[in-house]
Q: What sequence folds into this?
């Protein structure tokens, strides 16, 4: 029966078991191959929720990139290493994907980035711009290095293939980095789960097994965080992080207790 259970526990079964501490023994019994596949599939789902859905909704809300560039954006002109726009451009205010172009400012710096609430943010001034991605970090682009370049709204249309290529490349980077991020994030959770009250137990789980359970305990909290970022339901991402951590610690501690004390 145990072998059959191992072979029939699918991806969604593992998600359901992850919020049922009494089923954590079943998760420990799964072949490690299934755990690896679970992490990879879950990471792909997180990438889609964090990147593809917000990006698609962002462009769809403006009727596509062509309409965004030609109808929504004001007149843009770049020459001699300086950007000039007919007014301030702001898209995605109070969301996880934010663009702000304000050429009345000479320069912007990375300290102005809202790294707490944004997954992706671009701040543009007259002479430079700063770009933030939650997975890659922040970088600055100085327009002085493009002294000989010029472009306007019509020129931006010609850059569509480059823009789409950059977005695809960013998504591929996320696909490769998300599993690593997920695995690393389970380490502090497992360390917390390793702290037990003194007392005799019939068995003590090794750190490796607690770490495996931590991978599952953070599943639903992590999905909830991604869903919130995608749907922009609660603006305070820090609050969601704390709530997710609390719930994950609760699930893990209960699961470890059930296994070690054989609570039925």
A:
């Amino acid at each position: 029966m145990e072998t059959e259970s191992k072979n029939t526990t699918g991806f969604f079964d593992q998600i359901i078991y992850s919020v049922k501490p009494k089923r954590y023994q079943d998760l420990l019994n799964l072949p490690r191959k299934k755990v690896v596949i679970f992490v990879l599939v879950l990471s792909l789902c997180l990438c889609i929720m964090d990147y593809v859905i917000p990006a698609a909704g962002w462009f769809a809300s403006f009727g596509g990139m062509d309409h965004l560039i030609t109808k929504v954006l004001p007149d843009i002109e770049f020459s001699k290493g300086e950007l000039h726009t007919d007014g301030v451009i702001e898209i995605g205010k109070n969301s996880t994907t934010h663009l702000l172009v304000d050429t009345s400012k000479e320069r912007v710096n990375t300290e102005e980035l809202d790294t707490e609430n944004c997954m992706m943010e671009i701040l543009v001034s007259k002479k430079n711009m700063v770009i933030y991605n939650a997975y890659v970090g922040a970088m600055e682009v100085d327009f002085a290095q493009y002294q000989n370049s010029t472009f306007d709204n019509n020129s931006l249309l010609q850059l569509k293939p480059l823009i789409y290529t950059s977005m695809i490349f960013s998504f591929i980077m996320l696909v490769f980095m998300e599993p690593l991020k997920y695995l690393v994030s389970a380490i502090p959770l497992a360390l917390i789960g390793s702290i037990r009250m003194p007392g005799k137990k019939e068995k003590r789980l090794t750190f490796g097994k607690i770490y495996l359970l931590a991978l599952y305990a953070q599943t639903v909290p992590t999905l909830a965080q991604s869903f919130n970022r995608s749907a922009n339901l609660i603006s305070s991402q820090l609050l969601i992080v704390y709530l997710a951590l609390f719930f994950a610690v609760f699930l893990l501690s209960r699961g470890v207790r059930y296994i070690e004390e054989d609570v039925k």
